[in-house]
Amino acid sequence: MPLRLVIENATSKELARGVAAAKAAFERSGISIQDAMSGMLALELWDMKGFPEGEQPTEEEEAAAGVWFEAEREASEACCASWPEDKIVLAHGVLGFGLGEPKVKTANLATWVDRQQRYQEVIERLETATGSDRQLDIDICYVMGWINEPGTPEEAAQLGLPYLTSNLAEVAAITAKSIHGWKIEIDQQPCDARIVELDLDEDDEDNLSVAAWRCFDGRLHMMRPPANAAIALTLAAMRLQADSFLPGR
User: How many other CB atoms are there within 10 angstroms of residue 122's CB atom?
Assistant: First the structure.
């Protein structure tokens, strides 16, 4: 998935120049784009949770995040190199992945800010869920922009919303429709799910493959695996959206 630079009023040539500068910054650092993004996400999510003690990013993640922020700064400067000084954009959040505005944002612009703020809470609830949870199902649907407002378990039934925390076949069908060029892998004992980017090696710096529980390098997202395979795949699919939910998107 390509790097994306979003700077209002920039031409395609200027944006391409900025992306090239970011790639050069990553290459100089010796830290892969994937590791830099992971470090940045760890730092941003810690910020979103209110900087709780004992949950701060590791030194390696902080260093990787610093590389991301430096690449973002250099991308902005390169993009805006010929602009008047008062027009230069140095805002955080202009660098990301993809080809345009995230679909999860454009699904419902009116509720985007609220949904963005609820994302981390939904991730944490999925990580600790013990089984089928219709309230969590409808909350996920809201965060993803599939419905216009939060609701109750009764409303989830009335609306015929998917059973995202209990029906693996349903979750797999939804996930398969929303991603192309990816492979879904499911483990049952212990439960885990991976969404793997095809045509890329695991050590490729552009590989954005995600896992619900056990990362590809052996690290664990949480101490215990997901309660069931449906939760695992829903969690992996939500993790795949992490970059889209960052502040500034």
Answer: 20
